[in-house]
Write a structure and sequence with these properties.
Number of strands: 15
Distance between the termini: 71 Å
Order of helices and strands: EHEHEHEHEHEHEHHEEEEEEEHHHEHH
Structural class: alpha/beta
Helix content: 25-40%
Largest sheet: 9 strands, mixed
Strand content: 15-25%
Strand order of the largest sheet: 14-13-12-11-7-10-9-8-15
Radius of gyration: 22 Å
Length: about 425
């Protein structure tokens, strides 16, 4: 426990600046920033501590006098920096996702257990108004136990915006399978119901037209699918259907939890509204209307969170991290649930690569299970600088993708 505001540094000042801006509101002091680009320091300098220090080198950054670090660096490179930070005596808040490989999952859990440091995943969607209210209702017991649940995260972007987000052919966004970015779909359902995934099978959707356009003079090409769909068997016997980060309109996210005595869902197009339903033949005591639609509110700090931006989720991440650091209040997304999410993504993609075969999801809370995967480094990501190290295709339809590109190239030569 701390008897003062936690002193925290931010690594990755693009996305990380959003957390830095909410730090004061959540009772956290930002004392250091680290990024390759010094101009990004301007995003946090005015809202950070007056003595906030900028670093380009991570190893120097983690020696700064601070209690914890926020990792907001590249999607697939959080584990190595989290481990470095914990070994340097710092607690960690890590953006999605926690681990890029199964070996990373093992190493991350081992590091938390060996160092005794606090680790929390900065997954924000469970704490937006709709999912928060769904969790409250579910935990009240009034709708019974979950039998089936659905979660979607749909974030379509066009080629111009994609290129801005992914400069260079080796950028992680150019190779990240849609299935890998599943935290915004699955994490809210886990938070609402408290169950974990045990098995996954998945399929992906490939849009042939995506292979037909180029994005700039360097001929950057999309290499990932348009959508990934997963079926999960959970540890209580229920089945969940979730998406990854789907590139199919319209933009939005949606959650439904169907239970033994009723169901609750967020309203499509408005995550702040929820729909609560019961069977007309089996209404709970005191309930007279089988269908209720209403605006959700947070049980505490409603006005603060509502005005904090990004659906309030980022504020709750920072606020919960503050409570973890100051008062030892353990968050829901500890290291074990964090690697559950990562392992589901990894195994889900392996299922897609094998045309939907089911894969068990390792439970890395068990040491004997960890031993089996400590050398499993298969990944679709190349090294950013060299382009080497890639061991899996970035697209479950890679062969078809390459055939389209080859045909296009051949047609171009014929015209010339």
């Amino acid at each position: 426990m701390l008897n003062r505001k936690p002193r925290v540094g931010v690594f990755g000042l693009g996305r990380g600046s959003a957390y830095a801006k909410l730090a004061g509101l959540a009772g956290i002091e930002i004392v250091a920033g680290c990024d390759k680009d010094i101009t990004k320091f301007e995003k946090i300098k005015e809202i950070a501590s007056p003595d906030c220090v900028f670093y380009r080198d991570f190893d120097q950054f983690i020696q700064h006098d601070m209690d914890a670090v926020i990792l907001a660096n590249y999607f697939n490179r959080h584990t190595e920096f989290a481990i470095k930070a914990m070994k340097a005596g710092k607690d960690v808040l890590s953006e999605t996702q926690a681990a890029g490989t199964l070996a990373d999952c093992v190493a991350l859990v081992n590091a938390v257990e060996e160092t005794g440091r606090k680790y929390m995943l900065a997954e924000n969607y469970p704490f937006m108004r709709g999912p928060s209210e769904m969790a409250r209702v579910y935990k009240s017991g009034i709708i019974g136990d979950v039998v089936f649940a659905e979660g979607e995260y749909v974030h379509p972007i066009g080629p111009v915006e994609q290129l801005k987000l992914a400069p260079g052919e080796n950028h992680w966004r150019m190779h990240n399978p849609r299935i890998y970015y599943l935290t915004h779909s699955l994490a809210p359902l886990m938070y609402i119901t408290g169950v974990r995934p045990e098995r996954v099978n998945a399929e992906t959707v490939f849009l042939k037209d995506d292979a037909l356009f180029t994005w700039d003079n360097e001929d950057h090409k999309p290499t990932v699918e348009a959508a990934g769909i997963m079926l999960l068997k959970m540890n209580n016997g229920s089945v969940f259907r979730i998406s990854g980060s789907n590139n199919l309109a319209p933009h939005g996210n949606w959650y439904r939890v169907a239970c033994s005595n009723g169901s609750i869902e967020s309203k499509r197009g408005d995550i702040g509204k929820v729909l609560l339903d019961y069977g007309t033949w089996d209404l709970p005591v005191g309930v007279t209307e089988p269908h209720q639609e209403y605006d959700a509110k947070w049980a505490e700090l409603n006005d603060v969170a509502a005005n904090a931006g990004h659906g309030g989720g980022d504020f709750w991440v920072m606020y919960n991290f503050m409570k973890y650091l100051r008062y030892d209040e353990e968050p829901y997304f500890t290291v074990y649930r964090s690697v559950d999410l990562s392992a589901t993504a990894i195994m889900g993609y392996r299922s897609a690569l094998t045309e939907g075969q089911p894969f068990d999801i390792p439970d890395f809370s068990k040491k004997e299970i960890r031993k089996q995967y400590e050398n499993d480094t298969f990944a679709p990501f190349p090294d950013f600088d060299t382009g080497e190290g890639k061991t899996l295709p970035s697209n479950a339809h890679q062969k078809e993708f390459e055939e389209i590109l080859a045909a296009r190239e051949a047609a171009g030569k014929k015209e010339n």
